[in-house]
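Consider the tokenized backbone below.
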């Protein structure tokens, strides 16, 4: 439009007469004295009339109107050269800066406000994606009519929320966005509703954070198993059950929960076991999922199947573990690693108890003794995850089943709330649900009349 008084007034009259409503205005004379950006709300007929009359006046030309102006804020480390990668990226995308403002604020960071004049709107998403990989970015003003940009704005807002909630690095934040988007695509491709993806991921992360410290409140149970062994059960609000077999000189754990709750768990150990630090401590690991193996570093020896050992060998070599080799499970598992502060266990304190060499639903692979308890060790068919093992003491009618049997019926409120996330975000917690069901049926039949110490939920009698 012409650079003179009343130009905007003429446009606004045309818009209002035809029933349109101006919902956004952006004008910067330093960018282009003739260009005014408007967002106008109205029905299709109203907008068509407005566009036609503005074109008649010469206010809309056929070869323009695609330019976008975006106002962003970048958070950069206050060190020499921090802005250079941003400027190089803008130059790469051929984007002009129409406005920029920054000032030191006494912290280790500076906030740069930039107005970006973009002539090709189709590359906006890629530009913002690349900028978000360099630094924290917030969109202060943008064209709400651009659907692709709306999606990008959402991703950036979501990534900023995750970064602040979980205190993530930029690299971790990028991983969260990548894997969250993969989960959404997987759900969409399986004709499941992807609309809850980010809501569930947000709730997952928030649940982890909100149950730290004094808010970590597990259920704790205890019973005498034999003359020499006392059994303790710790049921956390999220993560696997932790069982402790206590004798006079030694503690034998079965599974050990999420690593992000290591401090909370150690406080509980000391509260229920007198002179906890004076005991020798070993671990029986039912399977390699991160919600069962977060504290492996505190044990003298970790007993596990050969397949579970292989899982950790892959991790130590920087390769995908068994869950990550599964297309549907990998994104959620990688998110869980970040959310729960997972660190790859050392192989040095691991000892293999046996190897499965057949395809049966349940196969005996070894034996194990603790005081007056003698366990037979069975390995499942990998329906839940490859390497899963079950410990059964026939003399005492006692079985530790890991996640091959869980007691959903007796979940606490917290456990029930947390339990909805993984099945939705992974589409199933099992690698092969049909095989998992077959394995579960065999275990159930084999342990009739036994006390079942399941991977999640209270122990129960298999009647």
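A designed sequence for it:
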């Amino acid at each position: 439009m012409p650079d003179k008084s009343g130009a905007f007034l003429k446009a606004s009259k045309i818009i209002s007469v035809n029933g349109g409503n101006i919902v956004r205005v952006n004008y910067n004379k330093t960018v282009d004295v003739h260009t005014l950006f408007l967002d106008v709300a109205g029905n299709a007929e109203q907008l068509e009339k407005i566009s036609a009359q503005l074109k008649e006046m010469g206010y809309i030309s056929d070869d323009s109107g695609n330019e976008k102006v975006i106002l962003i804020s970048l958070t950069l480390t206050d060190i020499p050269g921090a802005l250079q990668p941003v400027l190089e990226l803008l130059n790469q995308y051929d984007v002009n800066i129409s406005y920029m403002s920054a000032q030191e604020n006494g912290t280790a960071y500076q906030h740069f406000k930039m107005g970006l004049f973009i002539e090709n709107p189709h590359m906006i998403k890629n530009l913002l994606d690349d900028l978000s990989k360099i630094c924290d970015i917030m969109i202060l003003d943008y064209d709400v009519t651009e659907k692709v940009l709306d999606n990008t704005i959402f991703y950036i807002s979501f990534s900023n929320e995750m970064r602040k909630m979980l205190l993530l690095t930029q690299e971790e934040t990028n991983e969260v966005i990548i894997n969250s988007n993969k989960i959404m695509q997987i759900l969409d491709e399986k004709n499941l509703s992807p609309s809850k993806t980010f809501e569930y991921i947000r709730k997952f992360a928030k649940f982890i954070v909100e149950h730290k410290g004094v808010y970590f409140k597990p259920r704790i149970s205890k019973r005498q198993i034999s003359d020499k062994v006392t059994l303790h059960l710790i049921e956390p609000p999220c993560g696997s059950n932790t069982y402790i077999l206590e004798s006079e000189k030694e503690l034998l754990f079965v599974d050990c929960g999420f690593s992000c709750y290591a401090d909370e768990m150690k406080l509980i150990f000391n509260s229920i076991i007198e002179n906890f630090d004076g005991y020798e401590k070993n671990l029986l690991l039912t399977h390699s999922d991160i919600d069962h193996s977060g504290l492996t570093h505190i044990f003298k020896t970790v007993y596990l199947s050969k397949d579970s050992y292989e899982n950790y060998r892959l991790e130590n070599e920087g390769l995908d573990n068994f869950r990550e080799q599964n297309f549907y499970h990998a994104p959620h598992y990688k998110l869980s690693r970040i959310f729960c502060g997972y660190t790859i266990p050392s192989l040095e304190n691991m000892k293999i108890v046996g190897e499965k060499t057949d395809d049966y639903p349940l196969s005996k692979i070894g034996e194990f003794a603790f005081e007056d308890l003698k366990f037979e060790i069975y390995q499942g068919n990998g329906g839940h995850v490859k390497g899963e093992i079950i410990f059964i003491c026939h003399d005492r009618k006692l079985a530790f089943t890991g996640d091959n049997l869980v007691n959903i019926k007796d979940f606490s409120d917290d456990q029930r709330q947390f339990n909805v996330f993984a099945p939705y975000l992974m589409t199933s917690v099992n690698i092969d649900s049909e095989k998992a069901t077959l394995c579960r049926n065999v275990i159930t039949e084999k342990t009739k009349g036994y006390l079942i110490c399941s991977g999640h939920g209270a122990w129960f009698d298999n009647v």
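The CA atoms of residues 240 and 257 lie 5 Å apart.
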